[in-house]
């Protein structure tokens, strides 16, 4: 992991969705992860897809320009749950990741099966990054990742 210094801009941070699914193979209530190099991404991707044999290879990413964030919502009692990243804001040396967990409509037919909804996103690497904060729709911080100093 690295800390990048320089002039930091503020405002919305573009991102793209690499993958969304319902079987993240995580063990926590919520899981938040950051990959800033290929080896970290391969380990994270392997964890997400541990239920698949053989596990697929992680897609290549240009980590000089990008980083990867993953949010998994933990075990859910039925199909139909989704993790949605609504926006990312770049504030100084902080990325704020706004998360929503969508539940299936109350009147919908639901497959009774344990799921682990998740989203993996690709984000342009900021020049300066010290922490990543994951926020709920009320802007409460769910988790904070501090990056080590160089």
UniProtKB/TrEMBL annotation:
- Provide any one GO MF term from the record: peptidase activity
The lineage, from the top, is: Bacteria, Pseudomonadati, Thermodesulfobacteriota, Desulfuromonadia, Desulfuromonadales
Q: Where is the PrcB C-terminal domain?
A: 68-123
For biological process, the GO terms are: proteolysis
**Name of the protein described by the UniProt record:** Protease complex subunit PrcB family protein
Record-linked InterPro entries: PrcB_C_dom
Top-rank taxon, per record: Bacteria
Q: Which organism is it from?
A: Geoalkalibacter halelectricus
Any matching Pfam family: PrcB_C
UniProt KW keywords:
Hydrolase, Protease
